[in-house]
Amino acid sequence: MKRETFKTIILTILIAISLVFTWNIWMFQPVMQDQADAGTQVVETKKISSDEPRSLIDVVKPREMFIHSNGEHLKVDQKELFQNFWNDVSLWDVKEISDVSDQYSEQKFKNFFYGNGGQGKTLDLVFNDPIPIDIFQALFKWPNKSIEYNSFDRMIVPFSQQDKANKKVYLVSYSKETVLELTIESANYRNLMDSIAAAQNEMPRYDLYTFSANSKRDFLLPRKQEQLESKMFFIETIKTSKFKDALFTDPSLVGEESNLNRTVYTDGTSRLEANQKDHRIQYQHRNINSSTVFQTGDLIKRSVKYFNDTGSFTDDYQYFGINSNQQLSFNMFMDGLPIVNSTKHPFGMTSLEVQWANDDILNYKRPNYILGNKASQSEQVKLMNGTELKDLIVKQTKYDDLEKIEQIFPAYQAASTASDQDQAMFVWLEPVWCMKYNGKTVILSHDLLTEGSENHGVE
């Protein structure tokens, strides 16, 4: 073989080998090294529930809607009308913002609020607790305009502006008599308001009540007894291991100890306790303290994100309030009514409660069950009318400073059906009246008139 031919063959082979190596490099997909061998560990994030994430507008909602018109008060009790209106809020385009509080004397404020004195018919949205301005900014299409930080517990929407291009909507702090005027654009405004107005003949009538001659606060209560359903549900208990996997940073480092009613998990820094008797899960960071005071709006937004990240929205939970320790409550809701724990036959937790320290969860408590929405049994129950409620509130002496009453509203109380609470797999949701008294939810029943009655505040 000639020397030149031999060199050509060798060169061809080398080129072929080079092409094969180049191809392998381009197409190479590395097999990840075992994490333990690599000295690092990637922990798969798990969730308590695989339900769809909730948006802010799903979690921050008005509890009730009323129509006010020249001394007449009607409650919007049709779920579809209520939900259609609130869903449309996120489409409202806010054009201008103005504080108009100085335009209203005390009497003029009430006339404006309740549609009296020729002020025109209004729609009144009542929230569970004052909602910070930055939450409303997140709900609406709102320009980034610097405005004084404030919170509002009502939204007033006039009916008499359907034909105007720009509509006026008012955020109101009832206790502070603060009024913020928003100029909005809404494509569906007229249809929504017309639908609500068309149904008002079927709505229950309410009246204004006060409990003392000098009281500045009015309460809307029904003229007639209202009939609601008491419902029984079979609960689905969530496995405690799901909470461990969702809440701890690295579940593989977590140890466990158990007794009859209680299971405790800890990784040395955080602690998870499952109390079967109270249907409660509690997760705590032990090495951090709550030292920073946050704006309520920031706490609401970071809490909703945390609940979505951990799959905590296992039922319909809505923002319910915040206490002096900056602990937020998101109560379970059914048929638009908040669920509170019974004080006479307690079932267990009915809310997500969370407290923050810097960027970490300091304390997180929640139910260990899913309620669902399919009742296994139901029966009709009549609730007290406004006159009966006022009579009860004035006669009872346990909560005698009537100026501390902030709200009165219907709710469901979660009552155990078992004599042995450890075996309670069924829960009765019984319609009741509640009041917020100095920040505390109290169930209103004739038990308050019983001498030496137990504490009826809901924890």
Automatic annotation (TrEMBL):
Superkingdom as given in the UniProt entry: Bacteria
Domain Regulatory protein YycH per the UniProt entry, residue ranges: 4-457
Database matches in Pfam families: YycH
Keyword Membrane: yes
InterPro entries on file: YycH, YycH/YycI_2
UniProt KW Membrane keyword: yes
Ranges that cross the membrane: 9-28
UniProtKB keywords: Membrane, Transmembrane, Transmembrane helix
Name of the protein this chain belongs to: Regulatory protein YycH domain-containing protein
Annotated organism of origin: Bacillus pumilus (strain SAFR-032)
